Amino acid sequence: MLLYNTDRDLKMAYLLMFITLLHLITLAMLFVATMEKSWWVWDSMENSDLWYNCRFDNSTETWLCSSTKETDWLQAVQVLMVLSVVFSSVSFLVFLGQLFTMSKGGLFYFTGLCQVFAGLTAFSAALIYTLHVTEILPDSKQLSSGRFGYCFILAWLCVPLLLCSGIIYIHLRKKE
């Protein structure tokens, strides 16, 4: 019987480590997707993100960036990505608090719901950018010569990870 409880405790410890690691990795990916400069790439010398249009100057070997033209669609994507980072951060902090203060048998509903909201806001942001990239980047170079960048792909990758971790949190029950 003692072996069973030790094995069970070990499984619970592994589950908590897995969910914590998943949350931190997803939060880092969200932060990079929101702040880094590669939502749309024309070549290795020019790209655009949620905040700036940048091009590489060979003579000075630096990136020259200017603010993006604020469109309603771009502002929606910016707000939704920032909200996603905020929801995921709040979710992690609440999880840590609940982990140490919640009574035995309690469920991590609030943590899970915050994580699900983070996933839904990231999904909305990525979907808006996908559908309205021509309105978001109207004054930029020919869009047909460009492609979506790695930050855009990271935003899409975060969606299922956030939703899955939110569902895991909702079903996670605190043991001893």
From TrEMBL:
Record carries keyword Glycoprotein: yes
Q: Which InterPro entries match?
A: PMP-22/EMP/MP20-like, PMP22/EMP/MP20/Claudin, PMP22_EMP_MP20
Locate the transmembrane regions by residue number: 12-35, 73-95, 107-132, 152-172
Where in the cell? Membrane
Keyword GTP-binding present in the record's keywords: the answer is: no
Please name the Gene3D superfamilies in this protein's record.
1.20.140.150
Regarding the membrane, this protein is recorded as: Multi-pass membrane protein
Key words of the record:
Glycoprotein, Membrane, Transmembrane, Transmembrane helix
Q: Where is the signal peptide?
A: none
One CC-aspect GO term: plasma membrane
Entry-linked Pfam families? PMP22_Claudin
Q: What does this protein do?
A: Probably involved in cell proliferation and cell-cell interactions.
Which family is annotated? Belongs to the PMP-22/EMP/MP20 family.
Name this protein carries in UniProt: Epithelial membrane protein 3
Q: Which gene encodes it?
A: EMP3
